[in-house]
């Protein structure tokens, strides 16, 4: 089975090599497009991992201890037989407020379990998955700082943290700013004030649900967003630039300097998502896309 999986992974290559990256910490560079697993992944995670990392531009995997798929990711990597330095691994832990998801007695135990499930000695980026209470966030951040010092991760950050969460965490932090905050961000939903705050603080925003869940839906619909692939402006610009609607939606994100995580398992879709550097969207068309989402007053 693994030989078949490996052969499929090497059957084709995306257009860009090496993969474009963004610096998130000293000597730590995050590829602009990562394969996100978890709820959006509807195929074999092991196969998707091998397909993604077997391409010329697929270099990053984004997962979490609560997704339950890290052993499958490890299997996909093993099928390729590539060196640990050849790919970027990003995972997440949860605070004590969400411990029922992870079933561990401490953050340190969660971190150890992440590494064990992934079959690695370190990850490149370790995040707190969602904010809990201020005290729980501080406890988790101290554990991440300890993991950073111990070489279990190369960079640390957060996910789903708002400005107030970050300001409170900053008071107790030794390592600051977080390398990354992973946030919902798409043509269909974006918090521009929060994005501006991150730019001021020097925190890289990595987008998740970059297509507002595509046809599968997403939590961004709670903010009034909708499937990016159905947005008329996206459809029109896809025709204008001779690319897919997904490429327009993702390019709008990376052209602003934001990396992203996308959940896909189909090789053709992977090639689309990894081929975003063959065209640029004009300033006027970027503004058109930015105006699609109108926050409720």
From TrEMBL:
Keyword match Lyase: no
Signal peptide from the UniProt entry: 1-15
Pfam families on file: Aldo_ket_red
Keywords recorded for this protein, A-Z: NADP, Oxidoreductase, Signal
Record-annotated NADP-dependent oxidoreductase domain positions: 58-293
Superkingdom classification of source: Eukaryota
Keyword Kinase in record: no
Stored SUPFAM superfamilies: NAD(P)-linked oxidoreductase
PANTHER family on file: 2,5-DIKETO-D-GLUCONIC ACID REDUCTASE (PTHR43827), NADP-DEPENDENT OXIDOREDUCTASE DOMAIN-CONTAINING PROTEIN (PTHR43827:SF3)
Protein family per UniProt: Belongs to the aldo/keto reductase family.
Name of the protein described by the UniProt record: Aldo-keto reductase
Species the sequence originates in: Aureococcus anophagefferens
Taxon lineage: Eukaryota, Sar, Stramenopiles, Ochrophyta, Pelagophyceae
């Amino acid at each position: 089975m693994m030989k078949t999986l490996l052969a499929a992974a090497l059957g084709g290559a995306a257009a860009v090599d090496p993969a474009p990256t963004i610096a998130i910490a000293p000597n730590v560079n995050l590829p602009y497009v990562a394969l996100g697993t978890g709820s959006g992944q509807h195929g074999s995670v092991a196969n998707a991992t091998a397909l993604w990392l077997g391409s010329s531009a697929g270099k990053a995997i984004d997962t979490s201890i609560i997704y339950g798929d890290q052993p499958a990711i490890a299997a996909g990597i093993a099928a390729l037989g590539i060196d640990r330095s050849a790919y970027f691994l990003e995972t997440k832990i949860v605070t004590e407020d969400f411990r029922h998801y992870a079933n561990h007695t401490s953050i340190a135990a969660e971190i150890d379990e992440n590494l064990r499930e992934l079959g690695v000695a370190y990850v490149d980026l370790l995040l707190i998955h969602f904010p809990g209470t201020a005290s729980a966030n501080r406890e988790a951040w101290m554990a991440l700082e300890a993991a950073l010092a111990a070489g279990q991760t190369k960079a640390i950050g957060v996910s789903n943290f708002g400005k107030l969460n970050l300001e409170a965490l900053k008071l107790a932090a030794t390592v600051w700013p977080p390398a990354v905050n992973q946030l919902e961000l798409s043509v269909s939903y974006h918090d521009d004030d929060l994005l501006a705050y991150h730019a001021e603080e020097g925190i890289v925003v990595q987008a998740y649900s970059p297509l507002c869940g595509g046809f599968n839906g997403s939590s961004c619909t709670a903010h009034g967003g909708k499937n990016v692939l159905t947005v008329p402006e996206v459809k029109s610009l896809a025709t204008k630039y001779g690319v897919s609607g997904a490429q327009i939606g993702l390019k709008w994100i990376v052209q602003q300097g934001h990396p992203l995580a996308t959940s896909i398992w189909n090789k053709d879709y992977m090639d689309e998502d990894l081929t975003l550097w063959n065209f640029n969207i004009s300033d006027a068309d970027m503004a058109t896309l930015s105006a699609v989402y109108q926050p409720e007053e």
